[in-house]
Specification:
oxidoreductase, Cytochrome p450, 16 helices, 447 residues, Cyt_P450_sf, 50% helix, heme, alpha+beta, metal-binding
Length: 447
């Protein structure tokens, strides 16, 4: 479980034991686990009320996530958070209102790509995508990128990812007084820094007043009716989670997509032809164009199938009472996982599962929003990712802008070719950053 390929190893183990539908095992001394590598049992786990809670690691608890949407236990408080998020952060109207921000960030990323090509004749996309994603989420949550404070918060996110993705035996061995690798100490220190920084931002915003006239999530939360207001401590946890979960996921997925574009020049050319036909060369791609770009949408789906950002660890659920799954009794307190990577690479479910073929999603409509458990990258059921539509909207627009502006190709040097090796941390990342070339295709007039 501490391996960077745990999803692959567990998939192989389930196949060899004939336990793809359900495989039980134990972590540490007393942590019972079941894992599903099949859509049927995955649906029972993710969509049933019996697994409505998440097990929370020591690092996640120390980093305040048990008071945020992702890990808060089901109940009145969790329902309140989901309602606030659905109505004020991820509503269709809210997502639409943020298009101008997404376009500005896309413009900045394109300028950074051009700068890198002029200076180095190559582009390492990872830092450009991460910077763009961070600025995008900071402005949507706080109304600005916060300048120096935003950079500090970005560094805190990086450290938080490192801490929460680290396999910690303290989560599975009842020796709470032992701090393996100093993880607990580092988490408490980081939580203090987050509390101080975000707490100060909240206090300053309250002093400014006029929160009803602003569109960022913090202002919206401060302007809620009294009965829906969150305490400052809970608001810090919610805002921190928004930044934490909203920064890396988009950047990681886009890097995988662009790696595939560099490797599959025919697919890239077909997507660019679709964009040129639909949009033309006189303006930038807009959100309203995306429904008319089915092949581009198919590319995103195929990358989500081959490289699901949360292949395993993001899917953990906790049985809140005894329950039967696939006719087997699962005791209360059991951790349940879904190996989405195993499902999306199963040859009995997908034809040629290792091949990169976006066309498969042109031939067959497959929803990725949680209703079809053959491909549910954002989860399903009550704990489905609340920001899935916003994330997908952002990825599709930025991908379209990058393909409209540049032709992407591999470097000439054989030592810097595209490497699809994986590294499972909190998300499934590229082990080695994508380095490639980008050449301007056409001069696109500003909107």
């Amino acid at each position: 479980m501490g391996s960077s390929h745990a999803h692959r190893k567990l998939a192989c183990l389930a196949t060899s034991l004939g336990s793809s539908r359900l495989m039980p095992f134990t972590l540490g001394l007393n942590t019972r686990v079941i894992i599903s590598s099949h859509p049927d049992t995955a649906r029972e786990i993710l969509c049933g009320s019996s697994f409505s809670d998440r097990p929370i690691k020591e690092s996640a608890r120390a980093l305040m996530f048990e008071r945020a949407i992702g890990f808060a236990p089901s109940g009145k408080y969790w329902s309140q958070l989901r309602r606030i998020a659905a109505n004020h952060m991820f509503s269709p109207r809210r997502i639409s209102s943020l298009e101008s921000l997404r376009q500005r960030v896309a413009n900045d990323m394109i300028k950074n790509v051009q700068f890198e090509m002029n200076e180095r004749n190559m582009v390492e996309l990872k830092w450009i995508l991460k910077k763009g994603s961070l600025n995008n989420v900071l402005e949507s949550v706080f109304g600005s990128n916060l300048g120096v404070e935003g950079e500090k918060l970005g560094s805190m996110v990086e450290e938080g990812y490192e801490l929460i993705s680290e396999f910690n035996w303290a989560d599975y061995i009842p020796l709470k007084f032992v701090d393996f690798s100093g993880v607990k100490k580092r988490c408490h220190k980081l939580a203090g820094q987050v509390n101080c920084l975000i707490g100060r931002i909240i206090k300053e915003r309250k002093k400014e007043g006029n929160v009803n006239t602003k569109n960022d999530f913090l202002s919206v939360c401060l302007s809620l009716p009294k009965e829906d207001q969150l305490s400052d401590a809970d608001l810090v946890a919610v805002l921190w989670e928004m930044v934490f979960r909203g920064t890396d996921t988009v950047a990681i997925l886009l890097e995988w997509i662009m790696a595939r574009m560099v490797l599959h020049q025919d697919v890239q050319a077909k997507a660019q032809k679709e964009i040129d036909t639909c949009v033309g060369q006189g303006r930038h791609v807009q959100d309203s164009d995306i429904p008319n770009l089915p092949y581009l949408q198919a590319i995103v789906k195929e990358v989500l199938r081959l490289h699901p950002p949360g292949p395993l660890l993001s899917w953990a659920r906790l049985a809140i009472h005894d329950v039967h799954v696939d006719k087997f009794l699962v005791p209360a307190g059991t951790t349940a996982m879904v190996n989405m990577w195993a499902i999306t690479h199963d040859p009995t479910i997908w034809k040629d599962p290792w091949a990169f073929q976006p066309e498969r999603f042109i031939k067959e409509e497959v929803s990725i929003m949680g209703s079809d458990l053959r491909l549910a990258p954002f989860g399903s059921g009550r704990r489905v990712c609340p920001g899935r539509v916003l994330g997908l909207t952002t990825v599709q627009l930025w991908l379209a802008r990058l393909l409209q502006e540049f032709k992407w190709s591999p470097l000439i040097s054989s030592s810097q070719q595209v490497d699809l090796s994986e590294c499972l941390k909190l998300s499934l990342e590229m082990k080695n950053p994508l380095v490639c070339c980008a050449v301007n295709r056409v001069h696109v007039l500003p909107n």
